[in-house]
């Protein structure tokens, strides 16, 4: 049986070593865009728009 001393700081250090700044910036921009969309577009409006798009594309969803 071995003990695991992996800490949150170790995980952050590993992520910094593996993820380049452009990828991190892209992920942050995606999260910000999704947050903005859900906050200002409101979830029901976005849901209805996607629902109508699915029907327009011929996808049966219910």
Automatic annotation (TrEMBL):
Keywords: Membrane, Transmembrane, Transmembrane helix
Classification via Pfam families: CbtB
InterPro entries according to UniProt: CbtB_put
Entry superkingdom: Archaea
Membrane spanning stretches: 22-41
Protein name: Cobalt transporter subunit CbtB
Source species: Halorubrum distributum JCM 10247
């Amino acid at each position: 049986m071995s003990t695991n001393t992996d800490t949150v700081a170790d995980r952050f250090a590993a992520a910094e070593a593996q993820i380049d700044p452009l990828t991190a910036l892209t992920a942050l921009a995606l999260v910000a865009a999704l947050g903005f969309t859900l906050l200002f577009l409101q979830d029901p409006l976005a849901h209805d728009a996607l629902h109508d798009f699915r029907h327009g594309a011929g996808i049966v969803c219910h």
